Amino acid sequence: MHTKGRVSATLIAGALVLGGAYVGADGADLVPGFLTFKAPLPRVAPFPDSPALSPEPAEIPLFAKSTNFDANTYKALVREFATDYRLANAKLSFWVGDRDGVELASHEPQSALTAASTTKLLTAVAALHEFGPDARARTVVAWDNDKRKLFLIGGGDMLLGAGADTPRSVKGYAGLDTLAADTIVALSAQTPGNTKPAAGGPPPSSAKKSKSATSNSPASRDKSPAGSLLNGKPYTLVLDTSWFGSQTASPSWRDGDDRWVGPIQGMAINTGLVDPNAYRGYQSDPAGVAGQAFAQALSRLGGAGPAKVEVGKSGLASKELLDPLSPLPKVSTEVSASHGPVPIAYAQGAPLAQVERQMLKISDNTLAESLGRLVALHRNAKPTFAGSGAAVMDSLRELGVDLGKTELKGCSGLAYETRIPARVLADVVRLTTSRDHPELHSVTANVPVAGADGTLEHTYQGTLAAGVVRGKTGTLAITNSLAGTFVRDNQEFIYALVISGYPESQGGPSIEAKQMFINGLLGAKTSFSKVDPKSQPPDSPPGAPASSSPDASAE
């Protein structure tokens, strides 16, 4: 467990997909109507400042708590929302309160419903709790001189780049070209009579990345192919993804949902997307694609390419070598004299806080499941979807979260059997605002902002919510959810909302009701109704029973 408090510092991913398939990576939060006006990006409201220390704290105007906010303000809103016709065939669970857990409004807050991608809040908190915001996933290269096998060992970096390192970007922070160059240098230095330094070893204290000491150095560019162990007899490149286990797809996902998530193999270029600019459509073997890119880089950068590329085990893939908190690999300086595979180079991906931001902003399922798998492996649980869900829950229990009837069949929310009560979602969000857990603060800061970015970029524009509501979205064919924070009257409040179980055709109306409720929490006028106005004859009085006429009830 890592609890240090050092904190490191989008697009919509699809649209509603009917027929029971996963609904557009939360982009389905777009509903035509008064809540989706096009408008300039709003000014994002800052988090309220805490008061400065003072010898007389009672005399200082403190940041108001919700106990000073009249809970009666929300009574009518809660009643009208819960009985709105758009939710007639749905189950509803929500909770609204302050950062100390004081409740302002709720409806069935302990009811565990299909939570969709708000599940990623639990995954992000567990990962940061276990590793801290600065931890980085690894990719290790090892060489077996006896068998002439070069191993590329995946340790959970799903955002590898095909080119050189790009430390200013979360995607490609660690590049396979750079790792290949380090590998060539390491093996060139092992040949008799070659005086070049071996790649690897602890990096300088001023280095931004903990990887091979020769990374991007003149030595890594001054190659000597003729003296490399890669030259001469043929060798085999072996892709080792064994640490992440063999369960790459969840049995709980529905048919067609694999368009929204890639195989969880522990190694991929840009999560394995076929089109790097898209948010769906994944390669069937992203680790294999990464391996081919690495092989091509070896050949292109001056080393001999492998005679073949295959999947296998190095015998090195373990928590001791690959866990983000384990000591960095000690690369061998006597490869030619060793027996069996030994590490010769490695790369580290972007800091966890940056990966978590990418996951939360665009609701990336592949990153969520991969982070959950890392949590499972760190806690010595099984590297499966069920094992990952159980490990995330155990981590949250350590943080004091009462999970109630929560069930996690994975860590992305893509499984319909994943169920979370709104109160649990709210408690997890509340934890991320706690002064006792600064290592978790990036979660609240990195969720989408209404009307500004991520999966909420085109939602709530031109409304009171724009810029002051932060939230993690969740959308499946029968569920939509939202959980995060909002600011009202210079007070920061926590909210969590899950609407689930409605027919697929009711997705749009339920989202519209949710958006209206969120704006209502900020004081906006709402127009909830027990009956659909469109289903009543023109002369019917407000609240009159709907006509049984097919024409009158048709929409």
Description of the structure:
By secondary structure, this protein is α+β, with helices and mostly antiparallel strands. The chain folds into two domains: 69-130 and 354-528, 3-Layer(aba) Sandwich (Beta-lactamase), CATH 3.40.710.10; 136-188 and 230-349, 3-Layer(bba) Sandwich (D-tyrosyl-trna(Tyr) Deacylase, Chain: A). The chain has 13 helices and 14 strands. It has helices at residues 75-82, 119-131, 176-188, 218-221, 286-300, 319-322, 352-362, 365-378, 385-398, 422-432, 441-446, 507-521, 550-553, and strands at 91-98, 103-107, 112-114, 138-144, 149-155, 157-160, 236-240, 267-269, 308-311, 342-348, 419-421, 469-476, 479-488, 491-500. The strands form four sheets. A five-stranded antiparallel β-sheet has the order 2-1-14-13-12, sandwiched between helices. Strands 9-7-5-4-10 form a five-stranded mixed β-sheet, covered by helices on one side. The longest helix has 15 residues, at 286-300. The radius of gyration is 26 Å and the shape is elongated.
